Amino acid sequence: MRVPILCYHRVEVPPAGSESDTNFVTPAQFASHLSALSRLGFQGVTVGALIRWQRAEQTLPARPIAITFDDAYSSVTSQALPALAKHGWPCTVYAVSSYVGARNVWDPGAPPSTLLNATALRALVRDGHDVGSHTRHHRRVRGLSAADAHEELAGARDDLEQLLGVPCESVAFPYGSHDRETLERTREAGYAAALTLKRWGNGRRTNPWRLGRMSVGGPLSSGMLVAKLVKCLLTPSVS
């Protein structure tokens, strides 16, 4: 079995002034994506469940899929969660620990948006969703000095564990940027898994610190999503 992971960002209509819709899907698109996946027999799981399955500590449904959201935009709770709830699916949200409750500053192609605050993140955990790390300042970890990488990786993990009171098991690399040194530093920072933007499904033997994930955004119909997903599942993972 191979488990796909989808990466979303903002579930909203791109606001005026947006130069790109790459990080957006509309609420109607998102609902359509979930309905199409559900009709194909997929069932949502958290990244934490995937990690435990890789360790043979937990079983998964016959056709699992993990829905993730990078940056922890407020549209996760206002738009995405109601759609997910209709299917009974959990999700995993990756928060930038120094910007919890603030506004993003890293997307020059769109106006800044409010990010989820501590209360909202705690509510996600309480309701059965996962919250992971998207580093401390949304920096590309690849190429950083050892000290800076430690701050971004271990620092964010510590921040979120103190904020939420639960282990922070996984990190999603901003921009998917990583190399072998990054993976080693991620292990040293105490994470059980790391998510890239490599388009492959994840099996029991996939390197947990190099999990594949498919980015979703722009004018992507449900049919196009399914076609990309099939290709993703057929692509072998690389350690």
Provide a quick synopsis of the model.
This protein has 239 residues and is α/β, with parallel strands linked by helices. It has helices at residues 27-39, 47-54, 75-87, 118-126, 146-164, 180-188, 222-234; strands spanning 5-8, 10-11, 24-25, 43-45, 64-71, 92-95, 130-133, 170-172, 193-195, 214-215. Strands 1, 4, 5, 6, 7 and 10 form a six-stranded parallel sheet that branches. A two-stranded parallel ribbon has the order 2-3. Strands 8-9 form a two-stranded parallel sheet.
**Estimated structural class:** alpha/beta
Which architecture would the CATH scheme give at its second level?
Answer: Alpha-Beta Barrel
Query: Strand tally, please?
Result: 10
Q: Helix and strand succession? A: EEEHEHEHEHEHEHEEH
Outline the low-pLDDT stretches. none
CA gyration radius, whole angstroms: 16 Å
* CATH homology group: Glycoside hydrolase/deacetylase
Give the tally of structural domains. Answer: 1
Which SSEs are present, and which pair or pack?
Blueprint: E1 5-8, E2 10-11, E3 24-25, H1 27-39, E4 43-45, H2 47-54, E5 64-71, H3 75-87, E6 92-95, H4 118-126, E7 130-133, H5 146-164, E8 170-172, H6 180-188, E9 193-195, E10 214-215, H7 222-234
Helix pairs in contact: 1-3, 1-7, 5-6
Description:
The protein is built from seven helices and ten strands. It has 239 residues and is an alpha/beta fold. The chain has a single domain, classed as Glycoside hydrolase/deacetylase (TIM Barrel, Alpha-Beta Barrel), CATH 3.20.20.370. The two termini are 17 Å apart.
